[in-house]
Amino acid sequence: MEEDLYLINKVKDDNDTDSINELIERHSGIYIDMVNKYIPDAMEGLHKEDIMQDRSFCIYDAALNFDQKKNTKFSTYIGNLARWKCLNIYNKNIKFPQSCISDVFDERISCSSEINNIEKRENIENIFKALNKIPDKRARKIFKMRYKDSEKLTPWRKIAKKLDLSIQGCINIHNKNLTEIKKYV
After folding, report:
1. CB-hemisphere CA count at 13 Å for 118?
2. What whole-number distance in Å separates Cα of residue 13 and Cα of residue 10?
3. Selection from 41, 38, 147, 32 nearest residue 156 by Cα
4. pLDDT by residue (tens digit) across 125-149?
5. What average pLDDT score do residues 62-76 get?
6. What is the Cα gyration radius of the chain?
7. Minimal CB count within 10 Å: which of 12, 56, 108, 136?
8. What pLDDT does residue 41 have?
9. Residue 152 CB coordination number (10 Å)
């Protein structure tokens, strides 16, 4: 515990990368255990992989915000943060399920299916025509990267990284504009 406090103080005071790497190495197991416990593998709409990739940032953020005056171990603090992160994502998914491009059409197209036949390509083209009427240019980039640039759906994390947005921000822009597209298609 004292060594954790020493490392945390080095991160807070000096932004020491070796200290943060040591904290990440020590406490990644707790974070992963909590994510595995609260986000099942088969949960539709939840991207467990994206949550797992946030591990380093969450531990870094926890080090910056940790208050030793509260008499809590750092490992307990990280475990609680990971648990609440998972529960918040799970609850958000229940309240606001992610929309899919196939929702625009009456046909049954799986979101995870490849977009490679002519009919689906025509539907994509209609969506991009509708996107021209929407003022948010980021939406066009997101839809293009997600559905048009490859034969499979591009993961949200790749889109977010390319556009320098958060994953949830990209999903929100996508879903907001999907409802707008429905008006034009």
Report:
1. 0
2. 5
3. 147
4. 777 788 888 888 888 888 888 877 7
5. 88
6. 20
7. 108
8. 64
9. 12
Q: How confident is the model at residue 105 (pLDDT cuts 50, 70, 90)?
A: very low
Contacts of 42 (CB under 8 A, 6+ apart): none
DSSP string, 19-63: HHHHHHHHHHHHHHHHHHHHS-TT-TT--HHHHHHTHHHHHHHHH
| Residue-wise DSSP of 93-153 | HHHSPPP-GGGGSSS---TTS---SHHHHHHHHHHHHHHTTSS-HHHHHHHIIIIISSSSP
Q: Note whether 11 and 59 are within 8 A (CB).
A: no
Residue with tokens 């416990």: 37
Residue 77 CB neighbours (<10 A): 21
Q: Which amino acid is at 156?
A: W
> Given this model, what pLDDT does residue 108 score?
38
Instruction: Please give the DSSP secondary-structure letter assigned to residue 70.
Output: G
pLDDT > 80? residue 24: yes
Residue 96 CA to residue 46 CA, distance in Å, equals: 12
Q: Which of 60, 53, 50 has the alpha carbon at shortest distance from 81?
A: 60
**Rounded to 5°, angle at Cα 131 from 99 and 150:** 70
What integer best gives the mean pLDDT of the chain?
77
